[in-house]
Amino acid sequence: MYRRTQNPYGNYPQGRRGRSLGPGRFKMFLFLGLIMFGYQAFKYFTNVQENPITGEMQRVQWTSEQEIQLGIQSAPQMAAQHGGLHPDQQAQDLVDQVGERLVRSTIVRKSGYPYDFHLLADPKMVNAFALPGGQVFITAALFSRLQNEDQLAGVLGHEIGHVIHRHGAERMAKSGFIQGIIQSVMLGSGGDPSMAQVAGVVGNYVNLSYGRDQELESDDWGVRLMLEAGYDPEELISVMDILEEASGGRNVPEFQSSHPSPENRREMIEEAIDRYSGR
Fold this sequence. Notes:
By secondary structure, the chain is mainly α. It has a domain at 49-171 and 208-277. Helix content is 60%, strand content 7%. The strands form 2 sheets. The protein has a 3-stranded mixed sheet with strand order 3-5-4. The chain is globular and about 65 Å long. The model is unreliable at 1-19, 198-210 and 252-257 (pLDDT under 50).
């Protein structure tokens, strides 16, 4: 028979190995955690720059020059992770041609970023992505599924949208802020791992929501750039069909995904086409 005994630690948070922090130590850790939280919040919310293309005030910690250097330095490693660059020079020339047209014929030329477009050899992963500063990539697996230049322009225009909006710099600044909050919670709770776990879950969902907004912004820019460069923006909707087919229709609920659902993206693309074309 088990006897119920009184908790010898009272109601105070307990540190490792079940030892009580005690009221004095708990208050000290809480005070330090609040100071750290205040510092992280001040650094994140006051470090604001105006985007020269969109006019948006953004919370970023890097200059455009730093973004460019990061992208150039990271490009070889990213290419290596996808089997290197594709050996088909004719296909690479087409990617360059479409990408350069999107830059030269649109407002993107005023961004100051030195855009480079890379066709990766990866035959399995259907993907395209961009690094901060203008390094844009598309895998052979996605490239081979595209049916025309307009669809390629839609993919590259979407990725250029990420660069224009400085999404990479925003995400890194926000990720640093979330990590700082988690550390503040850990410190304020005296190292209670359960509190850190809760903070981590909240941080993950914050970042997921932020990612979906970025994707929709880039879809919007993809439509705008396609129209300005003389491409058919309806083909961006066809790209959504290709991506959905490539995924086998296995889509997780939108709230748990970093990308909006294909249906949501199609609707937003149609709205952007109506808005920019004036139809």
